[in-house]
Structure formats: structure tokens, C-alpha cells
Protein: Aminotransferase class I/II-fold pyridoxal phosphate-dependent enzyme
Organism: Microbulbifer okhotskensis
Amino acid sequence: MHIESATQEQLIEWEKELSAHYKKICQHGLNLDITRGKPSAEQLNLSDKLDGILSSDYRTADGTDTRNYGGLVGLNCARELGAEMLQVPVEEVIAGGNSSLTLMYYAVLNGYLFGFAGNTAWRELKAPKFLCPVPGYDRHFTICEQLGIEMINIPMGANGPDMDTVEKLVQEDSDIIGIWCVPKFSNPTGTTYSKETVGRIAQLGLVASPGFRIFWDNAYSVHDFGHPINLTNIRTATLENDTADCVLQFASTSKVTHAGSGVAFVSASQANLNSLKAQMQAMTIGPEKVNQLRHSRFFTEYTSLNEHMRKHASILRPKFKCVLEHLHNALTDAAMGTWEKPEGGYFVSFNTLPGCAKAVVKLAADAGVKLTPAGATFPYGEDPEDNNIRIAPSFPPLEELDTAMSVFVLCVKLASLRKKLDMA
């Protein structure tokens, strides 16, 4: 039944039937969690040969003892892995600890306190601002909010951020000093930026303020489900426009090997790397190099990166199929929402009817299914339409995910009907 074509009497009867079903579900004592994009145990098991891989041989090919201090930019063999993931020269890569989020926070803090490549520190501006494509990644927004950097919503489309709006804003406001980008399989929409979008982003440095930086969080660069999706190389595009100093790229193995003990990377021009290293020298004597060596040996001796990621894809693909089938089968004819069909990454972005997302999340929680909080995919947790929900299928076993999605679509129907009846 279509929600817009149903009569008032049909809507009331439909709501009663679903409410009765919902009450029975609430009695089952479910405790299911699809809040965050964590790898499942099955995915983590793919990298268990990391354990013991060094066999007490802690030296690199050039004789570096990884157990000791030093090596500010990380091991060269680890930097080569980052260069492969980001498709950049190894000389432009720093290999760090387990979290790219840490490197992103550090880079934003560096720009805020000191500026990049001799440009004005952002804290000296009247009102530093970041452009934030939405829906987007909540932890990006948290970094800005903690530092008091104002955030401006930029609508996301099928090809990436609304570039007409982006270009207009950076030309008009010199206090705009950055933009967050998840360019491949964006969190949460699954969008991969088009060649035209990447080209226009690469040209922003020609019209933006001198200290403007593009934070290119390429977290899902190798996380395709099937045939690899091509993303235009942002470094190449900026070199063609003489704007290479405007971009910092990030990646990690957190969803490639062991999530809690991976290796993170930042890539940038030498001018930007010099700015980062100047402050890193006061902060650290070097990263955790033993783990970096483990990763370089793992991908050399056991499997190639692409072969390894195909194993991840075979685990994730059925879970995303489960989510999309539930949405299609339960909600398409009812016209109670829209959703993306990603070809990689970790999330499915679902849009309820306007004003229903918070109600869906609460109904699901009361039935024992935890979802990412409504509004989390927007700066300050404020979704102006109250309609976006991020679904994270990766962590639970397929059977639990199937149950969780059955509850989810039921809650979407209930919230939609109740909203419609309130409006009648």
C-alpha cells in the first residue's frame, strides 16, 4: 500500500496492525547493534597472520631496528603501503599510528595553531569556517566543533558535493579555511566523486584564501565490493592547477587488517609535510614502527592488498545485499523513504520521510536495535529535515543483521504512518 494514496481509514487500520506487531517484537528482548562501521570478527580474522609474522626479526631491509626510537615519518616500507593506497609518491607520505582520525585531528590542530606552509594560523582569523558535505562523517564534525571552527552544510549529490555552492562560498568568504571530503564511497552515502567534481575541487586553491586546505579522507580507497570504482587522483588534479599545497590526503589499514592496530597515513606536498613535521618533532620521537614492519611483511609475504580486499568484499557483500533487499521489499511500494545503493565502503544512507528519523531511531531502540543517532551525519547533530539515518551492516553476523533490518523497516513504517496521521 502506498502511503500517499491510502485513505485515512486505511492508514489508521495499517498503523494498528503494525503497532500490534511492534509490541510483540519488543517482548523478544533483542539486543542488536548497527551503529558504527566496525569490521566483523570474520573480517578481522583475515589478518591474524600478522601475529608472529616478524619471528623476532625486527630489522628492516636497511638495517633499522624498529624496536628503538626515531623515524619521525615512519618506515619507508610502511610509507610504500600508504603510497599504494593513495596513489602518490612515497616521498609525500608519513606513516603514523593506528588511526587516520588522529592524523586528521593533528593536521586540523596544526592549521588552527600554526597555519600551513607559512600561511596565517586559522585561530587568527575572525571566524574560521569549514565546509561540510552532508550527510557526512560525524567525527570530522567533532574535530571542528571542539576547536570552535564554524561548520557550513554543503548538500551532497550523486557526483559529490554541490560545487556551485562550494565555489561561491570560498570566493565570497576568506574565513573559509577548509573542506571535508570522503571522496570514494562517502560516509554515509556511498557516493564516489565524479571526475568533474574532483577537478573543480582541485581548482579551489585558485579562488580560496591562501591558507585553505582540502581534507581528503580517502578511508575507503580499496573497499570495493566488485569491479573497482575509479576515483580521479586529487594529487594529479592539483598539480595540473598548481594548487598541490591545498590538499592533505588520509588513509589507514584500520578496515583492512586489524582495526585497533593498523597503520595510518597522511600524504601532502613537501611544504605541508614540513609544517606537520615541525610540530611533530615536539610531540613525538617517532611512531610505533614494529607494527608498521608487521604490515609491510604481511602484504609482501602473504597476499597483495587487492587480493586481501577481495576477501573482505566477499564477507561484506551479502550483508549489504540483506540491507538493500529489506529496504526494497518493505518500503519501495509504500514510498516511505529513499536510500543509496553503494558499490563499496561501509554504510547505507537512508532518508525517511521528513521529520521521521528521530522517531525511527527511538522506536528501534525500544525494540532492542541500536542505530546511529539521528542527526549524527550533520554538523552539531542537527539534521534540518530530520530524515537521514546511517545504517552500518558490517559488524553483526548476517542472521542478526537480518533480524535488525526486519525491525528497522517496521519502525520506518510505523513512524511514517504516525507522522502522516498527525498531519491529517
